[in-house]
Amino acid sequence: MLAESYLRTRTRIALYLATLFLLLFMSVQNVRYGLYDLFYMSILLAPAMLFGAIYAWARRSDLNAYGGHLAVLTVMLVVVSLQLSGGQKAIVHWLYGIGLFSFLLLPLRPAFTFNIVTLLISSVALSYSDSFYSTLRFATSYALLVGLAGVYAYLYHHKSRFLVHASIKDPLTGAYNQKHLEFSLKQEISRSEATSHPLSLVVLEVDFFDQQREVQGQNFINELLSQFGAQLLQMTRAGDSIYYVDNGRFFIMLPMTPEEGLLVIAERLRRSVEEHTWPIIDSLTVSVGCLTRKSGETDDQALTDRALTALKQAQQSGHNRVVLSKSK
Ligand SMILES: Nc1nc2c(ncn2[C@@H]2O[C@H](COP(=O)(O)OP(=O)(O)OP(=O)(O)O)[C@@H](O)[C@H]2O)c(=O)[nH]1
C-alpha cells in the first residue's frame, strides 16, 4: 500500500508539473503570436496545476482523497468549455487530455462520472461554435478514447485490489497474515492512543497442534485450519480482525473492547472451540492469552510479547484456559 501511494503521488505530481510547464511555454508562444485569449487561459490554468501538485503531495498518505483533484479538473473543464463556446475550436483537443487526466487523478467511479459530465458540457459548448457533424465527431472520438482509458483503469483497479488482497490474506484460514498483523497493530495502537478508546488483543493457539499434525497428517491440519478460521470469523463482530501466524496460532485484534468485554469474548471463543464437533478428532481445545492495552503502551512488539507470555501461562497451567495479562 505504501508503494502504491508513493507511485500514485509521484505520477500525479509529475503530471501536474509537466502540464504547468507546457502551459507556461504555451503562454509565451501565444503572446508571440498575438493569441491573447489562449494566453489568458494558460495563465489562468497554471496556478490550478500548482495547486494540484501541492494537493497531491499534502494528501499523499490518503489515496482516497480526491476533492482537490476534482476541483482542478472542474476548473480546466469550465475554462476550456468557455473558450470553446466562444469560438476557439482548436482548443477541443485539450478535452482529450482532461479526460485521460481524470483516470489518473480520481478514483474509478468519480472519473467515469466526470467524463460523462465533460462529454455533455463540452458537446453543448462546441455546438455553439461548430457544426452538428463536427460536434458529433468530437463526441464519438472522445467517448471512444476515454472509454478505452476507462476500461484500462478498471482492469488496473481490480488487478491491484486483488494483489493487495492476496498479499495480506492467509489463503488457508481466510484470516489476515502475520505481515498485516504488524501493520494493523501499529495503526490500531496509534488510533487507540489518540482517541483513548480501549484496544484488546487475543492470542489463541490450538492445543497440541504439532502432535495433531504428526498423528493426523498435513491434509487433516489444512482442513482443520480452514474450518477453524471460518469459526473464528463467524464468532467475532465487525471491526474485529483475525490473523493467522503459524503452527495453529491466531491473533485477534479487538478495537473498542474494554477488559470486561475482552474476558467475555475470550472465554466464549475458548468454550465454542471446546464444544464444537471437529472432523475426525471430534474434540479440540485452545489456550488463550489476552490483554487490554493500557494508556501510553505504544510499542506493538512489547504488546505482542505480553499477550504471548499470557498464552504461555495458559499452556503451562494445563491448556484449555484463558489467561488475562495485567500490565504492571
Ligand atoms: N470485540 C468484541 N467484543 C465482544 C464480542 N462479543 C462480546 N464482546 C464484548 O463483550 C461484551 C458483552 O458482550 P455480550 O455478552 O454479547 O453482551 P451484549 O449486551 O450483547 O453486548 P453488546 O454487543 O455490547 O450489545 C460486549 O460489550 C463486548 O465488549 C465480539 O465478538 N467482539
Protein model, in words:
It is a single chain. The protein is of the alpha+beta class and 328 residues long. It has two domains: 2-168, no CATH class; 178-324, Alpha-Beta Plaits (2-Layer Sandwich). It has eleven helices and five strands. The protein has helices at residues 2-32, 36-58, 67-85, 93-105, 108-129, 132-168, 178-195, 209-216, 218-235, 259-275, 300-316, and strands at residues 199-206, 241-246, 249-255, 286-292, 322-324. A five-stranded mixed beta sheet has the order 2-3-1-4-5, sandwiched between helices. Helix 2 (36-58) packs antiparallel against helix 3 and helix 8 (209-216) packs across helix 9. Residues 236-237, 240, 254, 257, 261, 264-265 line the site of guanosine-5'-triphosphate.
Q: Topology, pairings included?
A:
Blueprint: H1 2-32, H2 36-58, H3 67-85, H4 93-105, H5 108-129, H6 132-168, H7 178-195, E1 199-206, H8 209-216, H9 218-235, E2 241-246, E3 249-255, H10 259-275, E4 286-292, H11 300-316, E5 322-324
Parallel strand pairs: 4-5
Antiparallel strand pairs: 1-3, 1-4, 2-3
Helix pairs in contact: 1-2, 2-3, 3-4, 3-5, 4-5, 4-6, 5-6, 8-9
The structure holds guanosine-5'-triphosphate (GTP).
The site of guanosine-5'-triphosphate has 8 residues, from helix 10.
Helix/strand structural class: alpha+beta
Q: Please give the number of β-strands.
A: 5
Distance between the terminal alpha carbons, to the nearest Å? 36 Å
Oligomerization state: single chain
Number of domains: 2
